[in-house]
């Protein structure tokens, strides 16, 4: 018995060695593209069957509610399939991304995973970890139902690698009007950052200790910073930063200085992640919080009324620009149930799925043919802006930069949070661009 | 001839496993650390992420974040080792002559050792929460306010100063000081009462007995404790991961930075170079110790 | 790896001496007790927070009042923690038990050879083993992860817990070998081995009928040791498993890093995840100490 164990362990070691010599992971024949054309076109035939494991970082609050709404839609349309929720908790997916990376490397991919549309998915595409889903997109209606500039962001070398589920706006300030009243500050949006900073000074003078709420998680700081950057640079110059723009420009430097001033009005701890920071506004411990529009669900959950309990504006200086991010779903290579995954993607991309999901999550549909009148006022206004405003892509949420670049920017921002050294922050941003562009 | 090598065959499976999984994998890590890496960017360029060869090491050593991580490791290790030795010795001294309820105190001091760093880190993350002031403070800072000592509040491990990692050593000391105590206690108990009595008969004061009779005999234990705690400190990963999160500039040490390099920065060569240097640092401390103990053991026989 | 590389902990019962005490001694004794109680209180402080928080209902919990005693007891946190951790708890139990048993058996055979049945070069090999005890696992993690990926893709049943068992057994060889070697070196008289050899008993017979029957104290030590370190491991779990196959440290970390933390569930989870090792220390700690005493104190 003992020796058998011994031999077993030894064998495992040898097996491992030989397997290691083999190197790269094997291509799974079941993952071949085009094998599932029959099921992609609105296939309401009950689905491919089997388990469909879907990886998201939607484990909490409104995100969880949205996922559940989508799951209900999926189970209604594809009763043969079993939905497996692989949600992982983690701030805007920063933990989840590292974990997903390990799972993909482990050759243990989920059947579908959530990824921010844009540069973030590029890493997976270059690493040959995703299957194209052109057939799914075409089956759903292609450019007839999805905005063309959004699909362009998802297209690499003529192929589309993910199905967008929803769009969020990043540049939104959430405001507690009762706190504004404490300092006699007007409820209207300030015209620019300087006016906003002046309001914060007034509030501080009136005894509001932390006019601005921000989380200690580095991505929440980056989220605030990207709004400031957009305000200082303007849309075109901001968007150029990710192609050939100059990170050494004076505009970037003045954004850093404005950001530093904003932080001097902010809390230094007490809020680990965005929900606690938003709670500070809800509870009247802070007047403002810059957060993506998923925060609207946090207010709804706490039974707060728009207009009386809370207000929202585009971050001062960014009015007229929609700083966007979008979630989308993929089909990883080597997924165990690719047909089931396509059933899922069809649900995600359908008008009914997008309506159910976005109503619950507090985002707006990526499809343009979903009627706005079913949505609450905030989303209606966001859908309106999405149609008319200029576009800028979010840094903090994977639309503008690849993961490695975003990791470098996060390092710089998290360093600045601690040492407040503007020169080294600027240098860090320049270097990050240099080594990742 | 066969007889002479019999033992070898019984140990052979373990030898193979250790050779492959310790030494073989270390070699492979080193090979990875020398590999070049390029990446296609979103803008369509080929970026050289790691140049390959020893340039990978040069690049790593020049990286400001890595330098900070090394500094953090130094601060952490000094406070961690110093703290455990100090409290371990203090508690052993308090307990060594036998007191009422000794078993209770020993268990209380020792039990944190049974808890995983992930579990204790979850608690300490909250205790060491950096918020300051009445409407932000939680954890220890809140306790200080409650006791009317608000000036004791600290930002702990997220303090901007260079010695923030001293705060990170607090939970580590909490967890392992009891272990060092147990080592010293065993050392004290291993010294026969006759030696103390003999010294007392000679008229030595209690302090002189400790100074000249007991402490010298404890020095081998102190050395092992030093090595064990020191190398644990260099490997610290779980605790920081649980308290500061997996990507936090201020609280980086090489072991946690390696995770970031591997998965966030997607740069395996640099992560491997980092791991190799970490191994070298540990080896510099441990190998002389192994040689030393090997020698004293042989001499003693 | 909290504890893999810790050496034995011998703690003997105190020697009780009866002498008449002087006032100075009484003063010292009082001071000593005050210090001991103060330190114990400091050590137990985190446990206090964990306990009171775990019994608060999530609705009652306010971070600013976390130090207060709960107004009324609620078991919601405990139930939620149990629900979240139970599957991982079962996996950890299987993993830590198997790892402890297998590495103890290997350690016993190795220890026997290195202590009593040496071969040319055995002390060099032994020192090589010992170094394996100290290495930072980061230095093997990248290739180890690749090997395990490859192994799991050709042998799916190996993924998750079996992978962790293999890893803990391999990296547990050094410490187990050390403990058994030290134990056999002192607890098994060389004369007996020699006598058996003269009687014509071979190596395996000697091991089986002479050495193994008196190995129980060392087995207690390595079993407890390996169980605790496998249970408490997070690094290997993080690199080699996922949320569906990982051990309880993995599940707890996920529970704790939720964006909207449910503190009562989190703190109850800390206790649930730590309970097995705590129980081992509380109930078996004595055997652990006794086993060490009988063997490795020189």
TrEMBL record, chain A:
Region of interest (Disordered), ranges: 26-50
Recorded family membership: Belongs to the bacterial solute-binding protein 1 family.
Record protein name field: Probable sugar-binding periplasmic protein
Keyword Signal recorded: yes
Domain of life from the UniProt record: Bacteria
Entry keywords, A to Z: Signal, Transport
Keyword match ATP-binding: no
UniProt lineage: Bacteria, Bacillati, Actinomycetota, Actinomycetes, Propionibacteriales
Signal peptide annotation: 1-21
Primary location: other
Family annotation (InterPro entries): Bact_solute-bd_prot1, SBP
Gene3D superfamilies listed in its UniProt record: Periplasmic binding protein-like II (3.40.190.10)
Function (record text): Part of a binding-protein-dependent transport system for a sugar.
Low complexity biased stretches: 28-43
Gene Ontology CC, one term: cell envelope
Species of provenance: Tessaracoccus oleiagri
Compartments, record wording: Cell envelope
One Pfam family this sequence matches: SBP_bac_8
From TrEMBL, chain B:
GO terms under biological process: transmembrane transport
GO CC, any one term: plasma membrane
Compartment list: Cell membrane
InterPro entries: ABC_transporter_permease, MetI-like, MetI-like_sf
Membrane topology: Multi-pass membrane protein
SUPFAM superfamilies per the UniProt record, alphabetical: MetI-like
UniProt keyword list: Cell membrane, Membrane, Transmembrane, Transmembrane helix, Transport
Name of a matching Pfam family: BPD_transp_1
Listed transmembrane segments: 7-26, 69-95, 107-127, 165-188, 209-229, 271-292
Stretches assigned to the ABC transmembrane type-1 domain: 70-291
Principal localisation: membrane
Entry's family note: Belongs to the binding-protein-dependent transport system permease family.
PANTHER family for the chain: ABC TRANSPORTER PERMEASE PROTEIN (PTHR30193)
The protein's name: Glucose/mannose transport system permease protein
TrEMBL record, chain C:
Pfam families per the UniProt record, alphabetical: BPD_transp_1 (PF00528)
Any one GO BP annotation for this protein: transmembrane transport
Start and end residues of each stretch annotated as Disordered: 1-23
Domain ABC transmembrane type-1 intervals: 89-284
Top-level taxonomic group: Bacteria
Membrane topology: Multi-pass membrane protein
GO cellular component labels: plasma membrane
UniProt cross-references to InterPro entries, sorted A to Z: MetI-like, MetI-like_sf
Locations listed in the record: Cell membrane; Membrane
Transmembrane segments: 30-51, 88-112, 124-144, 156-180, 207-228, 266-289
Keywords: Membrane, Transmembrane, Transmembrane helix, Transport
Gene3D superfamilies per UniProt: MetI-like
Family the entry assigns: Belongs to the binding-protein-dependent transport system permease family.
Protein name (record): Glucose/mannose transport system permease protein
Lineage: Bacteria, Bacillati, Actinomycetota, Actinomycetes, Propionibacteriales
């Amino acid at each position: 018995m003992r020796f058998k164990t011994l031999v077993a362990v030894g064998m495992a070691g040898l097996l491992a060695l030989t397997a290691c010599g083999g190197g790269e992971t094997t291509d799974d024949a079941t993952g071949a593209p085009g094998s599932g054309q029959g099921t992609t076109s609105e296939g309401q035939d009950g689905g491919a069957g089997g388990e469909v494991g879907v990886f998201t970082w939607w484990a909490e609050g409104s995100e969880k509610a949205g996922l559940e709404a989508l799951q209900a839609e999926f189970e209604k349309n594809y009763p043969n399939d079993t939905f497996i929720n692989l949600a992982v908790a983690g701030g805007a997916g920063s933990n989840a991304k590292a974990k997903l990376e390990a799972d993909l490397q482990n050759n243990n991919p989920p059947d579908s995973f959530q990824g921010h549309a844009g540069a973030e998915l590029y890493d997976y595409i270059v690493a040959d970890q995703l299957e194209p889903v052109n057939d799914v997109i075409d089956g759903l209606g292609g450019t007839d139902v999805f905005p063309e500039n959004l699909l362009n962001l998802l297209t690499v070398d003529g192929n589309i690698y993910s199905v967008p589920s929803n769009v969020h706006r990043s540049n939104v300030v959430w405001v507690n009007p009762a706190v504004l009243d404490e300092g006699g500050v007007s409820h209207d949006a300030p015209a620019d950052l300087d006016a906003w900073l002046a309001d914060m000074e007034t509030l501080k003078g009136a005894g509001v200790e932390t006019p601005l709420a921000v989380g200690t998680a580095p991505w929440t700081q980056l989220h605030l910073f990207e709004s400031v950057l957009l305000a200082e640079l303007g849309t075109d110059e901001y968007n150029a930063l990710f192609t050939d723009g100059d990170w050494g420009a004076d505009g970037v430097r003045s954004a850093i200085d404005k950001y530093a001033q904003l932080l001097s009005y902010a809390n230094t701890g007490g809020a680990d992640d965005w929900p606690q920071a938003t709670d500070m506004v809800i509870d009247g411990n802070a007047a403002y919080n810059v957060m993506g529009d998923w925060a609207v669900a946090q207010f709804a959950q706490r039974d707060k009324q728009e207009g009386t309990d809370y207000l929202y504006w585009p971050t001062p200086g960014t009015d007229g620009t929609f700083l966007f991010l979008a979630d989308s779903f993929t089909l990883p290579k080597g997924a165990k149930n690719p047909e089931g995954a396509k059933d899922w993607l069809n649900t995600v991309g359908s008008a009914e799925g997008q309506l159910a999901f976005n109503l619950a999550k507090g985002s707006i549909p990526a499809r343009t043919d979903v009627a706005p009148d079913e949505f609450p006022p905030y989303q209606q206004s966001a859908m309106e802006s999405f149609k008319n405003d200029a576009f800028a892509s979010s840094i903090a949420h994977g639309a503008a930069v690849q993961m490695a670049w975003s990791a470098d920017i996060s390092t710089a921002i998290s360093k600045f949070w601690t040492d407040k050294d503007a020169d080294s922050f600027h240098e860090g941003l320049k270097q990050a661009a240099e080594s990742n562009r | 001839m066969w007889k002479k090598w019999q033992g070898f065959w019984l140990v052979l499976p373990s030898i193979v496993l250790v050779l492959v999984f310790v030494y073989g994998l270390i070699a492979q890590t080193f090979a990875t650390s020398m590999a070049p890496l390029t990446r296609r960017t979103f803008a369509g360029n080929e970026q050289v992420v790691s140049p390959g060869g020893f340039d990978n090491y040069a690049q790593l050593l020049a990286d400001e974040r890595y330098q900070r991580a090394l500094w953090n490791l130094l601060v952490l290790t000094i406070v961690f080792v110093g703290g455990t030795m100090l409290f371990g010795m203090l508690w052993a001294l308090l307990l060594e002559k036998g007191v009422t309820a000794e078993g209770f105190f020993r268990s209380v001091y020792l039990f944190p050792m049974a808890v995983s760093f992930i579990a204790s880190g979850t608690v300490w993350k909250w205790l060491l929460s950096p918020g300051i002031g009445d409407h932000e403070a939680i954890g220890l800072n809140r306790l200080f306010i409650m006791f009317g000592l608000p000036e004791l509040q600290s930002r702990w491990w997220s303090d901007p100063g260079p010695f923030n990692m001293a705060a990170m050593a607090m939970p580590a000391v909490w967890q392992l000081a009891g272990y060092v105590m147990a080592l010293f206690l065993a050392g004290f108990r291993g010294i026969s009462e006759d030696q103390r009595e003999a010294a007392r008969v000679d008229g030595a004061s209690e302090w002189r007995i400790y100074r000249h009779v007991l402490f010298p005999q404890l020095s081998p234990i102190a050395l092992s404790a030093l090595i064990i705690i020191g190398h644990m400190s260099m490997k610290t990963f779980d605790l920081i991961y649980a308290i500061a999160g997996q990507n936090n500039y201020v609280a980086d040490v090489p072991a946690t930075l390696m995770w970031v390099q591997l998965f966030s920065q997607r740069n395996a060569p640099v992560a491997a170079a980092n791991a190799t240097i970490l191994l070298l640092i540990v080896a510099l401390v441990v190998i002389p110790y192994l040689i030393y103990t090997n020698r004293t053991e042989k001499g003693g026989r | 790896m909290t504890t893999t590389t810790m050496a034995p902990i011998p703690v003997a019962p105190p020697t009780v001496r009866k002498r008449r005490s002087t006032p100075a001694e009484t003063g010292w004794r009082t001071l000593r007790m005050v210090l001991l109680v103060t330190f114990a209180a400091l050590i137990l402080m985190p446990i206090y927070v964990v306990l009171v928080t775990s019994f608060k209902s999530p609705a009652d919990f306010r971070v600013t009042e976390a130090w207060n005693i709960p107004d009324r007891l609620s078991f919601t946190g405990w139930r939620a923690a149990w629900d979240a951790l139970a599957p991982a708890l079962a996996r950890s139990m299987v993993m830590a038990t198997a790892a402890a048993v297998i590495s103890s058996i290997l350690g016993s055979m190795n220890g026997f050879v290195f202590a009593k049945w040496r071969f040319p070069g055995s002390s060099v090999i032994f020192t090589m083993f010992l170094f394996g005890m100290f290495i930072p696992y980061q230095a093997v993690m990248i290739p180890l992860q690749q090997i395990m990926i490859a192994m799991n893709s050709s042998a799916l049943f190996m993924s998750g817990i079996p992978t962790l068992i293999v890893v803990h057994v391999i990296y547990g060889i050094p410490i187990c070998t050390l403990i058994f070697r030290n134990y056999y070196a002192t607890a098994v008289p060389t004369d007996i081995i020699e006598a058996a050899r003269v009687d014509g008993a071979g190596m395996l017979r000697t091991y089986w009928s002479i050495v193994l029957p008196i190995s129980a104290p060392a087995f207690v030590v390595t079993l407890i040791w390996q169980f605790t370190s496998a249970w408490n491991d997070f690094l290997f779990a993080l690199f080699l498993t996922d949320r569906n196959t990982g051990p309880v440290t993995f599940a707890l970390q996920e529970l704790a890093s939720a964006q909207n933390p449910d503190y009562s569930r989190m703190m109850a989870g800390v206790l649930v995840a730590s309970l097995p090792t705590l129980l081992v220390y509380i109930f078996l700690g004595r055997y652990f100490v006794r086993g060490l005493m009988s063997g490795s104190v020189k």
